[in-house]
Write a structure and sequence with these properties.
This protein is α+β, with helices and mostly antiparallel strands and 334 residues long. It has two domains: 207 residues, Sandwich (Jelly Rolls), CATH 2.60.120; 114 residues, Orthogonal Bundle (Arc Repressor Mutant, subunit A), CATH 1.10.10.60. Strands 1-3-4-11-6-9-12 form a seven-stranded antiparallel beta sheet, with helices on both faces. A five-stranded antiparallel beta sheet has the order 2-5-10-7-8, with helices on one face. Strand 3 and strand 4 form a beta hairpin. Helix 3 packs antiparallel against helix 4, helix 6 packs across helix 9 and helix 9 runs parallel beside helix 12. The longest helix has 18 residues. It is globular, with a radius of gyration of 23 Å.
Length: 334
């Protein structure tokens, strides 16, 4: 059984570039860290929480910075921009990201970040061995080739927000001293849940096989409930209807959805309805019909909440999706 032990918890404010380099090299690996322009107002605020295979780092620079990092080899880093913008380059690709995106850097490729002044970044560092061990366990076999994630940024949506909430809960429990000897199974469950969500969010060379395998592992009652939702989700159905279709108790259904899909049955229903609206708007099937009518036909009764949930999932309003669709159709006719 894995025994968890708190490794470190540190916070520092550094006004020396030399000290900042020493600190960052120790937290990750030796790399280039250089301010752009004046360095007399250099300032770094750094916090870290190190626990098991997961480490959380918060870094804030006053100066515009250029960071160049060699391949990590033994770990991956998931980056969230809390303030400011960052242009990052990896595998000959270049992307500008802000708080609307998350991205991953890792084990096989050199990495460069150009950070705006007063940039704040939260980084989750995950051991490559822990990721590959979890993946091999899920697939039930030894990996055929090393794990490799795609490097394009991922738009923050409902799934990413759920991941961030899970991560927040994990570290709140750590801070409360909950993970001590004798309760390591709690930490192990949280760690596995976070790693599973990483595989769900960030495409990699095992994505198709991973989804195929996890789909096959879902119990019959979850598959029944999913089929019922997909077939009847645009009608006025309730949780009781989904429970009846699944053939199990309310408690078993909720537990199964949480365990295998990391979502509740009613949240699954809402996501299905949102994706249906998105499909209609995106592919020009909404001609002569208002967005309100489409949302209503798909089971939504509160338009304000519908718009909020839609934007959280797709990163744009329903009207913006519709305009994009109209523009695409117009271009295809030119």
């Amino acid at each position: 059984m894995k025994t968890y032990k708190m490794l470190s918890h540190a916070a520092a404010r550094v006004d020396s570039l030399r000290e900042a380099r020493r600190l960052m090299n120790g937290a990750f690996l030796p790399h280039s860290l250089n301010p752009i322009g004046r360095s007399d107002r250099f300032s770094l605020v750094y916090k870290t929480r190190d626990f098991g295979a997961l480490q959380l780092h918060t870094v804030s620079y006053a100066e515009e910075m250029l960071v160049r990092t060699p391949p990590f080899e033994s770990f991956y880093c998931i980056h969230f921009s809390a303030a400011g913008e960052c242009e990052y380059r990896q595998q000959k690709g270049s992307h500008v990201v802000d708080s609307n995106y998350v991205y991953i850097s890792g084990a096989s490729h050199a990495f460069e970040q150009h950070m705006s002044p007063n940039y704040k970044q939260v980084t989750l560092k995950v051991g490559k061995q822990a990721l590959e061990r979890f993946l091999a366990s899920e697939l039930g076999k030894t990996l055929d080739e090393p794990l490799c994630f795609e490097t394009a940024p991922v738009k923050v949506n409902a799934e990413v927000l759920s991941f961030l909430n899970q991560l927040t809960n994990y570290y709140q429990l750590i801070s409360g001293g909950l993970f001590i000897q004798g309760r390591s199974h709690v930490a192990n469950n949280f760690e596995n849940a976070i790693i599973a969500m990483l595989f769900s969010i960030f495409p990699n060379n095992y994505t198709q096989e991973y989804y195929r395998n996890t789909q096959d592992l879902k119990p019959y009652f979850i598959r029944r409930a999913e089929k019922f939702i997909v077939s009847n989700g645009l009608d006025s159905i309730s949780l009781e209807d989904i429970i009846a279709a699944s053939g199990v108790s309310r408690r078993s259904l909720h537990h199964g959805f949480r365990q295998y899909l990391n979502i509740t049955p009613m949240k699954y229903l809402k996501m299905h309805r949102l994706r249906t609206v998105h499909e209609i708007l995106l592919h020009g099937k909404a001609e002569g019909v208002t967005i309100t009518q489409i949302a209503s036909d798909c089971g939504f009764t509160h338009m304000g909440k519908f718009s909020q949930d839609y934007k959280a999932l797709f990163g744009e309003t329903p009207s913006e999706t519709l305009r994009k669709s109209c523009g695409s159709i117009a271009n295809s006719l030119d």
